Amino acid sequence: QVQLVESGGGLVQAGGSLRLSCTASGRTFYSGAMGWFRQAPGKEREFVAAINWNGADTEYGDSVKGRFIISRDNAKNTAYLQMNSLKPEDTAVYYCAADLRRRLFVVPTEYDYWGQGTQVTVSS
């Protein structure tokens, strides 16, 4: 089993930045893929970003390309999501996901492990 804990969410003004962290525990995590998804009230869960096991491959959702950066530190069992130039439409609960396979995935059903989520609110 893998447990994921997100942190770093909060309230920020439009144009500001936040960095989310996702720390894994429970077993050897460093060899697995990581992803970030978000869900706003009344909307489906949306792909935000994903990274493969060693950080060499990343993917981003169209709405965050050029503004968000996903990274990881396998020595700390932690993945990060740097969010810049935030917009009110980025407001959502952000979820971290993990899978023990090495390649990245953009579909939420491919991930076996999920965090509880962290709220990000961007005010206009």
Keywords:
124 residues, mainly beta, 4-stranded antiparallel beta sheet, 11 strands, 49% strand
Plain-language structure description:
With 124 residues, the protein is mainly β. It has strands at residues 3-7, 10-13, 18-25, 33-39, 46-51, 58-60, 68-73, 78-83, 92-99, 113-114, 118-123. The strands form two sheets. Strands 2, 4, 5, 6, 9, 10 and 11 form a seven-stranded mixed beta sheet that branches. The chain has a four-stranded antiparallel beta sheet with strand order 1-3-8-7, with no helix packed on it. The radius of gyration is 13 Å and the shape is globular. The termini are far apart. The model has no long low-confidence stretch (mean pLDDT 95).
Strand-residue proportion? over 45%
Overall body shape: globular
How widely separated are the two ends? 40 Å
Task: Calculate the mean pLDDT score and round it.
Answer: 95
Helix content: under 10%
Number of distinct beta strands: 11
Major sheet attributes: 7 strands, mixed
Q: Which structural class matches the secondary elements?
A: mainly beta
Count of helical stretches: 0
Rg over alpha carbons: 13 Å
Could you list the spans in which at least 5 consecutive residues all have pLDDT below 50? none
SSE series: EEEEEEEEEEE
